[in-house]
Design a protein that fits this description.
disordered N terminus; eight-stranded parallel beta barrel; six-stranded antiparallel beta sheet; globular; mainly beta; 698 residues
């Protein structure tokens, strides 16, 4: 399959309510010409009439004179949260002036936010519009009745990323909740008769699939319609499906009466013959589905969504089956932040992450531990990653988070419902109780019920950090996720295999995912011997070679144990953890296979690329463990070639296979004093692949 840039960009354009899709609905960027100031955790207020800001300093009210001009996305923690635990946590103010067209007075106007960390309050011309709690989901407010058309209007957003007991996640311990309007904002205008925009920022249509096969598929479309006209609107709802070349393959039209009271729900089914199936990384074929409202030949509103037709089944002790064929679940995880940028990332940066993951050969991705940018789900659709989406009910409980957890579960499902890449909804990660009667199991059951009621066709999963299958917190969902770092937070690297065999014996009918595994590895620390760190909580040296050895052995064990239906290494990229000071880098989780700045790939990256990506390759491991003291050393390399050779200072060695067919080892290689040139060679057809490194014997 050839992955074309043009195809990717076209598919990303299928994001909910595509920008400027039709004249009936206009969606414009609202990201330029903002002003910003940080409130420094002071009490403050705004004199909206005079346009002045004041903050309290030791009992005195001081006028704020200095604003910073910014463009969204923006976070006020891009530096401090990546240094140490002394980061700013609190309020900041964003303000923008805009002039809506006089002609829009007879239309409806909305502001759509893709993400604000973590609480957002919206004011229009000094009037309080509303509040949204949660730093990772989208939200929409209608402002039609609060703006003056043809005049300048003031938009003010107060963002607050202070951790609280009633908003998940309730702390910054496992990852930072960056403050600010860190994802794009959109200005949406529609006619008075339209698809619902304010349903938790959902697209207004929900696409379900039934009876899917290569012969036929039933595509069910639920549309939510409303009107602000004073009379019943007699309209025509049309549903049009186009192939990936833009050719119309199905069209259905239905007469609908839209009541001016409440919301009008319409459910229709289109039967497709011989559909081209969305087949994951093997063939991520996407149709588009457009729903339109017309009256008297005039288009009133239109919504365009991606359509990937597929059937997914998880069978205990056998695997994941996509369209009836077993699908290789080569899984990675991803946090959204990046060195020097925090979480305020561009589309190009999201795309770069996904292309690095694709290069590794991954087929499935866990977007942890929160709802990520809508661009990420669109990219997953077009690349073909089966995707795990989850809410940030993670790490700790306060017993005050129930309402917000339920809200974020609804938002996650509704906002991402139409993405074909998503196969499973996550309800929690590493939250615990002593009995099945306590808050966590009860809330987990309620979260699972929300997900299954809204979307009965997808799986649900809950995750425990114990290597115990039948924990009371985890039994409410379809699938049990196990986070366990064998050889890191206890035990030995080689314990994973025997654990999986015991699970297979004791729980053969359970659907099990190894949702996290791995070890920290500092790419700048080389070491000759492979040794487990004595203290993984406060240790200051985490050599890369232990991480490499962990992944070598544990992937070999995973692929031999079918009870593990899918596995997700932790993590694709290093990420910030303000509360940590481990492994030689402050405020950093070093379990990533790629450095925080995305510039360097660790040995483990190439290990998985060798195992997962069919592209012929050869790679010498332990290249940064270059200072040696033993004359006789073991050299290992990764290659998916049928035969490889090792040449050390001109002497040939025949490599033998190690833990699997991609792992090659040469024992007792004799080094000379000083520099040693090491070369690996292998044939791929008529092409000779090579890799080189230098070790120094002291």
């Amino acid at each position: 399959m050839i992955f074309r840039k043009e195809y990717l960009l076209m598919m990303v354009g299928l994001l909910a309510n595509s920008i400027g899709f039709a004249q009936s609905r206009m969606e414009k960027s609202f990201n330029e010409d903002w002003k910003f100031y940080k409130a420094n955790n002071s009490t403050f207020f705004t004199d909206f009439e005079n346009g002045q800001k004041y903050f309290e300093n030791q009992g005195q009210w001081t006028k704020l004179e200095v604003w910073e001009d910014i463009t969204l996305p923006h976070t006020y923690n891009k530096d401090d949260m990546q240094k140490d635990r002394n980061f700013f946590e609190g309020k900041a103010v964003y303000q923008k002036t805009f002039r809506p067209a006089e002609t829009d007075k007879e239309r409806r106007t909305f502001l759509k936010f893709e993400g604000v960390g973590a609480v957002a309050q919206l004011f229009v011309n000094g009037n309080y519009i509303g509040e949204h709690k949660g730093g990772y989901s989208m939200f929409v407010f209608e402002i039609s009745n609060s703006i003056e058309y043809g005049k300048d209007n003031s938009i003010t957003v107060i963002a607050d990323n202070k951790s609280t007991k009633d908003i998940i996640p309730i702390n910054h311990f496992l990852f930072p909740v960056y403050g600010g309007i860190y994802r794009p904002v959109h200005l949406i205008t529609t006619n008075k008769t339209n698809f619902v925009v304010t349903d938790q920022a959902a697209p207004g249509i929900f696409i379900r699939q039934k009876n899917v096969s290569s012969k036929s598929a039933d595509i069910q479309v639920e549309a939510k319609l409303e009107t602000r006209e004073k009379t019943v609107q007699e309209v025509e709802l049309s549903i049009e499906i186009k192939d990936n070349q833009g050719k119309t393959v199905e069209t259905q039209k239905y007469p609908v009466k839209i009541s001016p009271q409440g919301v009008t729900y319409v459910n229709e089914t289109i039967k497709m013959k011989s559909p081209h199936l969305w087949d994951g990384i093997r063939d991520p074929y996407l149709y588009s589905l457009t729903a339109k409202i017309t009256a008297n030949g005039k288009e009133l509103d239109a919504v365009k969504q991606p359509l990937g037709i597929r059937h997914i089944e998880m069978i205990a002790n056998k695997g994941v089956f996509l369209n009836g064929k077993k699908y290789p679940m080569y899984g990675v995880t991803r946090h959204q932040d990046r060195e020097g940028f925090g979480s305020a990332l561009s589309f190009e940066q999201h795309k770069e992450d996904m292309m690095l993951i694709k290069e590794m050969g991954a087929t499935t991705i866990r977007l942890a531990h929160y709802q990520q940018s809508p661009q990420m789900y669109a990219l997953a659709d077009s690349i073909g990653f089966l995707t795990w989406a989850e809410i940030p009910f993670v790490n700790r409980v306060s017993y005050y988070e129930n309402d917000n957890a339920k809200q974020q579960m609804v938002e996650l499902v509704k906002q991402n419902f139409n993405h074909p890449s998503i196969y499973i909804w996550g309800v929690h990660n590493e939250v615990y109780s002593k009995t099945a009667d306590e808050q966590v199991p009860v809330l987990s059951r309620e979260l699972n019920d929300i997900a299954k009621t809204l979307d009965p066709d997808r799986y649900t999963v809950a995750v425990t950090g114990y290597n115990v299958i039948d924990r009371q917190e985890n039994l409410s969902t379809d699938v049990q996720g196990i986070n366990h770092y064998f050889g890191w937070y206890g035990g030995k690297i080689e314990d994973l295999g025997p654990w999986a065999q015991k699970v297979q014996k004791d729980f053969p009918e359970y659907k099990i995912i190894l949702s996290e595994y791995g070890a920290d590895g500092n790419i700048d620390i080389g070491k000759e011997e492979v040794e487990a760190p004595k203290d993984v909580i406060s240790g200051k040296a985490f050599p890369e070679n232990y991480q490499t050895e962990t992944h070598i052995q544990q992937w070999a064990a995973i692929e031999k144990n079918p009870i593990i239906l899918a596995s997700y290494l932790w993590n694709s990229f290093e990420f910030a953890v303000p509360a940590w000071n481990r492994g030689g880098v402050n405020a950093r989780n070093l379990k990533g296979l790629i450095t925080f700045d995305r510039k360097r790939k660790k040995d483990s990256f190439y290990w998985y690329k060798t195992n997962w990506n069919p592209e012929p390759m050869i790679y010498l491991a332990n290249r940064r463990d270059s200072i040696r003291t033993h004359k006789n050393s073991k050299i290992q390399l990764f290659s998916n070639l049928p035969k490889v050779q090792l040449i050390v200072n001109g002497k040939e060695y025949q490599a033998k296979q190690g833990v699997n067919s991609k792992h090659w080892v040469v024992d007792n290689v004799e080094l000379k004093q000083g520099e040693n040139k090491i070369q690996a060679k292998g044939n791929s057809g008529s092409e000779v692949l090579t890799d080189e490194m230098t070790w120094t014997l002291q």
